Amino acid sequence: xxxxxxxxxxxxxxxxxxxxxxxxxxxxxxxxxxxxxxxxxxxxxxxxxxxxxxxxxxxxxxxxxxxxxxxxxxxxxxxxxxxxxxxxxxxxxxxxxxxxxxxxxxxxxxxxxxxxxxxxxxxxxxxxxxxxxxxxxxxxxxxxxxxxxxxxxxxxxxxxxxxxxxxxxxxxxxxxxxxxxx
Length: 182
What we know:
It comes from Guptibacillus hwajinpoensis. InterPro entries: DUF4871. The chain is α+β, with helices and mostly antiparallel strands. The protein has a single domain, classed as Immunoglobulin-like (Sandwich). The protein has a 5-stranded antiparallel β-sheet with strand order 1-2-3-4-9, with no helix packed on it. It has a 4-stranded antiparallel β-sheet with strand order 6-5-10-11, with no helix packed on it. Strand 10 and strand 11 form a beta hairpin. The protein is globular.
């Protein structure tokens, strides 16, 4: 009988602590998602875009280069993502890679279509059921595929044509990548 009490007590403690850890994990996940969402309710870009940056876009699709076993699109030895075609109104996952001195701060990707002056977000919230554009993702993290830092993201652009992706880390302009949306 004493043995049964110890087993029962042990099982109750396991259930109690197991449930608490699950709740904490779910709360952490929900807080992470809401942090991304709360940063993106703004209609205007979260950084000041220098007009010279836009004026200096040459509109040639950015080159591809190899890093690790992947083909990247972007600026060699600075910034790029694993090359995937952009299809109009089709969100996809893109793994960002960064080389060299990387400023501290969250990643922001602002998009501008050739022939337009409107700046729109390119990033989308992967946890939203419907497409929800966001200006900001977390900070780039650890090295991968020969890069010094990396960050997974989801992006979507809604019109065909050439687009410049203006990459900011924190409030600092980092570089641009020009893509063709089919």
